[in-house]
Amino acid sequence: MQKEFVSADEAVKVVRSGDHIHLSSVASVPHALISALCRRADAGEVEDLHFHHFHTEGPAPYSEERYAGIFFDQGFFVGPNVRANVNAGWADYLPVHLGESQKLYRSGALPCDVAMVQVSLPDENGMVSLGTSVDCSIAAVESAKHAIAVVNPNVPFAYGDLVSLNAFEFLVKDDTPLVTAAFAEPTPTERLIGRNCAELVPDGACIQMGIGALPNALAACLEDRRDLGLHTEMFADGILKLIRSGVINGSRKKVDRGKVVASFLLGSNDVYNFIDHNPDVLMKDIKYTNDPWVIASNPGMIAINSATEVDLTGQISADSIGMRIFSGTGGQLDFVRGATMSEGGKSVTAFASRTNKGKNKIVDALNPGAGVVTPRSDAHWIVTEYGAVDLYGKSLQERARLMISIAHPDDREMLERAAFDRFGRHFLYVK
Question: Does 190 participate in catalysis according to the annotation?
Fold first, then answer.
């Protein structure tokens, strides 16, 4: 029996005060439903609604002060659109490894009363794709008391994990284009970092990296590689160039051979069109993409992630700057663990030695309140524009010497003094 479509205002009437609401994320936020909920809130019909999601793009009224006591955002990852409100206390951050975000719903540790997602047009079997935002949205749909789908022809039909249209209680039509992100042009410093990272990526490796100027710089340095694979959380235009040129073909992967595997996307329409009905792309549940055992199943796994700061012993902070939440745990440790378990794999943390404001990112000690996303016991390759060092199997004093060697030259004397104060005179003799 074919389901009828309803308006967004009709669909969100199912929401009750106190409900926990999941939003599909990144490029595919269901803004039509959010706007309808705002109209209910403005009319005084709901209060105490909790929102959960990955990084979202576009307006985020659910995080704003004007809806205090009505909406409370508790995202699994903090994007630029909610960052100020999170740090002001009007919204919040729920720390979780992205690979386990789906487990929060499936285990019942986090309630999901209403799942609000965008989906593609259905295929001949009534199955729809969550397109650019599979992530933990499938788990939310499975677990929710009520599921609402915004059927949007701009959502690409991506193979991988699909959902039956019958899983949704309400269907809403919308043809708003997905949010896009322009190609981030790398700086000279980022190009140097990309080159240093590229030296760690051999032919046949399977790579994971995110989006932005630094991954784009790395991608540009991999154009002469052969038979790379891709198993990642997300990718964008820089990686798309490598796929189209044949550098990434997945021919040496042991798992999902010949396939590009990801869970969510943010890029240009070119990226979204590329995954549409493309049998060489699998958009999968985050439970699969971020499972360290699945990641490790492909030999030569190279996981490349970033950091806000790293201390001299290898403690890696990536979600915060001191007490200020900047992003989130993400899937960093999922891929760090998976890559280091992979035969011939490497975990790489790459970042500029200084911020855009000239503050050193290699520090003697993390800023008070900073979150340790990757413990020093899991830290392996650290890369800046000044080189690459491997901390694995190194003592604290040896690590400090290596970290200083890739710090900004103007910061090295200060870091050496800090290391001497910490470790004593013997540090002078550490090579």
Answer: no
